[in-house]
Amino acid sequence: MKLNRRDLLKTAAAAGALNLAWPLSAGLTPAQAREAAEALGADYDPGPFTLGVASGDPQPDSVLLWTRLAPEPLAPEQDLPEIVEVEWVVARDRSLRQVVARGTVPASATLGHSVHVPVGGLSAGVCYWYAFKALGAVSRVGRTRTAPAGRVSEVRFAAANCQAFHDGYYAAHRGIARENVDFVVHLGDYIYEHGQVGGVPEDHVRDHEGPGTFTLADYRRRHALYKGDRSLREAHAAHPWFLTWDDHEVVNDYSGGAGGAPFMRRRAAAYQAWYENMPHRDSGVTGGTALPDPEIHRVRRWGDLLELTVLDLRSYRSAQNLPDGTILGAEQKSWLKRGISDAPDAWHVWANSIMLSQLRRSPGGWYMFTDQWDGFLAERKEVLGHVHSSGLEDLVVVTGDWHSAFVDDLRPDFDDTSSPVVGTEFTAHSVTSGAYSADWNKTNGPVMGAANPHLQYFEGNRYGYDVYTVTPERFSAHMRVIADRRDPASPVSTLTTFHVDRGRAGSYEDPATKNSPAQYRRD
User: Fold this and answer.
1) Is the pLDDT of residue 17 over 50?
2) Are 68 and 54 in contact, with CB atoms under 8 Å apart?
3) How many Å is the Cα radius of gyration of the chain?
4) For residue 21, how many other CB atoms are within 10 A of its CB?
5) What pLDDT score was predicted for residue 79?
6) CA dihedral sign, ordered 42, 48, 53, 56
């Protein structure tokens, strides 16, 4: 009888052989490590394009194309020449016959043989297909889309976050790949930096390939392991992505450059590996690299309908809980406030990696977590106060990190219920990363609701992603959830939908889904 992936994992764990089977265990060559990874559920595209293709940062006349040459994806260094010439092509059709742009770009060992091609001269609001060729092989075909210009009647986009490899398969990304969306926003925790969780109990269908990540080679292997999930590669190939990051791309709860030389070396390694493995275009960079510190924050517009502001809440932050602490850094805060003051008449969406809304443990009590904006109270009040004083309307913040779904009203002063509502925050379920237990959620959902009058909804028992539908009249958040993160082909359904009407601050749940399961909803 042929074992499925889960049975294989359980059998290996029961036999005490797990440490011999996992990729990059002691004594395994890169080829053997790949074979072990594939036996345990990983899957790669044909070499050298094993990690797939991707596109990102769509603008009306351009998009960024990405791939990385990795014939042995789990090797610390690839057995390739120092420089490999990579051909690329962009066409209006899937068969790549109606070519609109092509070229050749060098992939260097210095940057892990990654390729970042900013393709310009494209038409606004058009779907394109693309592919790469190198070393006699052709990559899979990816699909991308430029941003529209002028009047737009609708935009649909997905948001994903927190995809711990050991906690489940990426059925959520399989769902995203099949969604009819214009783009995807990833809100951080793309990888996790820690080592193996130890064994594979019922909660963990697979594991990390070795100890924690510290060096550039470590982070390269970790990214390669995560892209060994076919569904993640499919989601990248299906849509252009906007990207921000949170802490686990480097190390849990880190703050900017706070740390000694060993930490700064680790951060530099993590940042470089992230750049090598992401369809990221540095702001203002036309062809060079984004190193040593990729610039994440940017503003992009989807015609006249939506203004997307991507925030970086890790690179420039101070320590938490300081009277003058900063989560944005002085320069990014000034940039954000200028954008608020000069904002066009449109929906304003902030891509925000960690919760902006206040979250107290009990009425009048301390905060649940001060690694999020609750650790930077003065700056949060300053920014949201500026939203109010500037007269900015139609603000929606999309957030990750919490591994659970929240809907919150945004107020300049969360402790004053007469403080005006200036926007709505949607915090999405995680792709796989473990949430609190069902018992904890049942007990604490009402507690959080009582302690936080701005909290409208909480659901923590499910995993998935959000899809947002935006029209000139309404912003709708559809919470997509998977049935079982242990099933790579788990079906997707819509748990509930919330709406925000243009010109009216605050959200409301769609009557058709208002009876869906939740651990708290405010009547």
Assistant:
1) no
2) no
3) 22
4) 19
5) 94
6) positive
Cis peptide before 60 (omega within 30 of 0): no
Report which of 79, 80, 53 is spatially closest to residue 67, judged by C-alpha positions.
53
Residue 132: CB atoms within 10 Å: 26
How many residues comprise the chain?
A: 523
Confidence of residue 86 (pLDDT cuts 50, 70, 90): very high
467 Cβ neighbours under 8 A, 6+ residues apart = 156, 157, 158, 179, 181, 477, 478, 480
The DSSP-derived string for 227-271 is TTSHHHHHHHHHSEEEE---STTTSTT--TT-S-HHHHHHHHHHH
Q: CB of 350 within 8 A of CB of 397?
A: yes
Total-model pTM:
0.94
Strand-pair category, 520-521 with 99-108: unpaired
**Spatial contact of 385 and 357, defined as CB atoms under 8 Å apart:** no
Q: How far apart are CA 275 and CA 287, in angstroms?
A: 14
Of 305, 286, 282, nearest to 294 by C-alpha is: 282
192-224: pLDDT as tens digits: 999 888 765 566 788 887 789 999 999 999 999
Can you name the residues that pair with 114 across neighbouring β-strands? 68
pLDDT in tens, 254-276: 998 888 999 999 999 999 999 99
Per residue in 279-320, pLDDT (tens digit) is 999 864 334 456 778 999 999 999 999 999 999 999 999 999
Q: Tell me whether residue 156 is exposed, middle or buried, using C-beta atoms within 10 angstroms of its C-beta: 0 to 12, 13 to 18, 19 or more.
A: middle
